[in-house]
Write a structure and sequence with these properties.
By secondary structure, the protein is α/β, with parallel strands linked by helices. Helix content is about 15%, strand content about 25%.
Length: about 550
Amino acid sequence: MRKKNLFKRCILGALSMALLVPVVGAVSPPVVVQAEDISQLPEPTDEWAAANGWVKEGFDYVKSEGTLLYRLKYTTTYWEMQENSENWHWFISVEAIDPYATTGKVVIPSSVDGYPVLSIARYAFKNAPISEVVISEGVQEVGLAAFEGCKSLQSVSLPNSLLFLDQASFSQTGLKDITIPSSVKAVGTDALYYVSNSITFEGNAPEVLYADDGSLSVYGDVVVNCYSNTTGWDQFSLYRLTDQGWVTSTDINIIQNGEPPVVEATSVSVSPASVTLDEGGSATVTATVEPSDATDKTITWASADPSIATVSNGVITGVKAGSTTVTATCGNASASVAVTVTAETEPDPEEPGTDPGEPTPDPEPGVTLPYTDVTPDAWYYDTVADVYEKGLMTGMDATTFAPVETLARAQFAIILYRMESEPDIAFEATFKDVTDGQWYTDAILWAADASVVTGYSNGNFGPADKINREQMATMMFRYANAKGLDTSQRADFSSYPDASSVSDYARDAMSWCVANGIISGDNGRLNPQGETARAVCATIISRFYNAYDLQ
């Protein structure tokens, strides 16, 4: 292979780390970010980060969701470095937590918690056994060797916002065909090496970086296509590996008759087609556009009644009890999701497997809540007051409890840790994503030592992952066993319509919770995979504490 000029890239990358400094005067981030507002995005606060599941790491913030790790940082993208831009701003880069454990389809979102995803990090998915990549509109660059060596990769959808494919970004993959959108301004010389059938450029010839003669490295008989109404191709060259070795050529296939034909979206399908949520709970819906080669597969999401449920990039969040629809639209095609939002209620004597008794006593007289968002007429007032009085749950700040916000795994570990009177814990590297000195470190390490939590198979705990109802049941069950409490009680919950949805590992714990009136159903359902709002958590924890008269 030819010598590549990577010196400028290395210097710029080093400078970006050496000069990284935080912005002074932070304010809370906006809920929705428009592309033109990127340079004006505020610095996140530690309070905002904790509430949204982000962990401080140096000057950055990191958050894991599923198999993906998001890094929120204040700097420029690598493309902006190439352009010598001084436009520093907050943005997110994405990578796999463990590339070797990342399989199947990977979807890169356009934003997370109000900040834009602009970059796929260097080496982000290198050698991952993935088969399909969908990169959402808004992403601007694919980093150095981001998908290099992904031998199972068969399909890639690139957004019209993409500006830069870095060196080896899609090198040595299983791709046979790839289409490069007209927005792309530059590619690394080896970015598309080993694509075996066709490379089609929809726009003008991009700049080829890191090659002395500015030519694009390609493999074998791959056909490189461009369109007759685009420019720059008369100066574009290929460096092709043939049976006779490396050969420089200009054999670009020109497709006549102007721009590529527009393929309209004919249908949109959504999965699942209906969701049921608690207030504050959320669920992700996937939309699929047909045909797969539609020119524009951009999905627009809309809620018919945002006062009941909101939607952002397919993530539906319950606001208040009621029913509405969420619609996914692409061009003239659309599909709808039926959304039902319910509130956690006191046990119903008619509900199967519940105790209509009084599992949670009223708080002691004189308890006054400081929270302006928990009113005395709220169904959860007594249980919030109970856990507040016992010191098990605190507010997001001095006057805000945030009853409908969902709870993270780390936050629930802290509640149990407080129940155990917060014993001293020496740091031990138990989970890859739990480092020393974090606000949740002691609680998670105590929970692991007590066998209350076990973490994921990839070695992570997922502190920021939203906890669901069956995970909560399992952690309480393990905690009760660790304390030597009587956990022999069991209830037959098979009459719940979603009983079969309870995971095998959680069935004993869920049966125990139902038998003790700790979990009494969510609108007639167990909702085992449903995320848990803070008010619901307060109710469940209060029932658990008082069922065993823990002191």
